[in-house]
């Protein structure tokens, strides 16, 4: 059995129980076309360590990531607004990464799951360190918790014109 799996582009739904009990599954790559993750779609994937749910996913079914004992973190976009019950029951999550003020934040905070806001409501990655000369922004570093970072074209209504010297040198997450 493969430990990594890439879902083909164009797929919009991961069905109920699709990967349930795939004990060797460590990583899953999802295309941006995914909109729905079914009930218990990844439940009991005991080797699954982390997953980034693509922007555009609106529904995550009941128990979708339940009993995933190795699942340390998961990134969920603000588009995920229909969240089933017990999505993470029995998973030893260190944190859920998401957008400040999102449905996901409210969901996890009412269930005592650690939440790390990685993007502000305006879509700016939290943790980007920047300087400004009044008309342009320079990214000087990143102290956030993202595994991958998209450098925005604008920050605080200023055009990003430069990545500063040594900007990401000390960052061990990226």
Structure, briefly:
It contains 1 helix and 14 strands, in the order βββββββββαβββββ.
Task: Give the SSE map.
Blueprint: E1 4-6, E2 13-14, E3 27-29, E4 36-37, E5 50-52, E6 59-60, E7 73-75, E8 82-83, E9 95-99, H1 103-109, E10 115-119, E11 128-132, E12 136-142, E13 154-155, E14 158-163
Parallel strand pairs: 1-3, 2-4, 4-6, 5-7, 6-8, 7-9, 9-10, 12-14
Antiparallel strand pairs: 11-12, 13-14
Comma- or semicolon-separated keywords:
174 residues; mainly beta; four-stranded parallel β-sheet; 14 strands
- Label the structural class: mainly beta
Distance between the termini: 29 Å
The Rg value, from CA coordinates, equals 17 Å
The overall pLDDT average reads 83
Low-confidence regions: none
Helix content: under 10%
- The ordered string of helix (H) and strand (E) elements is EEEEEEEEEHEEEEE
What share of the residues does DSSP label as strand, in percent? 25-35%
Number of E strands? 14
Shape: elongated
Individual helix count: 1
Quaternary arrangement of the chains shown? single chain
Main beta sheet: 4 strands, parallel
Strand line-up of the largest beta sheet? 2-4-6-8
């Amino acid at each position: 059995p493969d430990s990594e799996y890439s879902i083909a582009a164009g797929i919009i739904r991961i069905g109920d129980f699709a990967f349930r009990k795939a004990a060797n599954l460590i990583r899953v790559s999802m295309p941006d076309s995914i909109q729905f993750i079914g009930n218990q779609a990844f439940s009991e994937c005991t080797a699954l360590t982390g997953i980034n749910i693509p922007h555009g996913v609106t529904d995550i079914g009941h128990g979708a990531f339940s009993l995933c004992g190795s699942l340390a973190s998961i990134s969920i976009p603000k588009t995920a607004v229909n969240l089933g019950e017990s999505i993470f029951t029995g998973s030893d999550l260190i944190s859920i990464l998401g957008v400040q003020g999102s449905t996901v934040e409210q969901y996890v905070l009412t269930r005592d799951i650690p939440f790390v806001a990685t993007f502000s409501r305006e879509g700016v990655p939290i943790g980007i360190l920047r300087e400004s000369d009044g008309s342009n922004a320079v990214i000087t570093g990143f102290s956030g918790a993202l595994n991958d970072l998209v450098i925005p074209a604008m920050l605080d209504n200023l055009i990003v014109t430069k990545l500063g010297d040594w900007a990401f040198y000390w960052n061990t997450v990226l």
